[in-house]
Amino acid sequence: MSAAIRYDMPLSDERFSGLIETSPFAAGAGREVYNVPSDEDVVVKKVKGEFLSNYLEWLIWTSIMSTELISLFGRCITISPTGRFLMMERLVNLDDWEFDRIPNVPNWMTDIKRSSIGRTADGQIKLRDYASAKLGETLASAPRRRVAL
Description:
alpha+beta; two-stranded antiparallel ribbon
C-alpha cells in the first residue's frame, strides 16, 4: 500500500467523483469499481442504486479491524457520508492455482464467488467483496450481559 497518499475521513461524493476514472473497470449487480489514477493501490466502489452494500462493507470492516479477522478482509480506507462511494485497498484477481490457498472465511459471509476474492501486492489472499452477509444468527448467539441502569 502506498503510505504517501492520505485520504480525509470521510470524503465527499464530489471529492470521490474527482478522484476516479470516468469508466469503471469492473461491475457487479449493485456496484461499479473504478481505478484512482493518482493512487494505484486503491479502488473505489460506487453504488448503482441503494447504498446498503458500501455501508455494510464499511460496518463489517470497522467491526473486524481490531480482531484476528482483519487478515481475511480487504482494507476499507474511507467512505462518503452518503455511502455512494467506498475506497478499498486494491486486490488483484487470483490465478487459478491460488484458489487452493483461500483461507477459511466466517460462516456468516454469503455469496462468495471467485470474483469476491483477491490478492494484495505482497501475496495475501483476502475477501474484496463482503457486502453480502448473514449476521442475524451470529448476533443472536453473541454473549449477553445484564445491564444495570
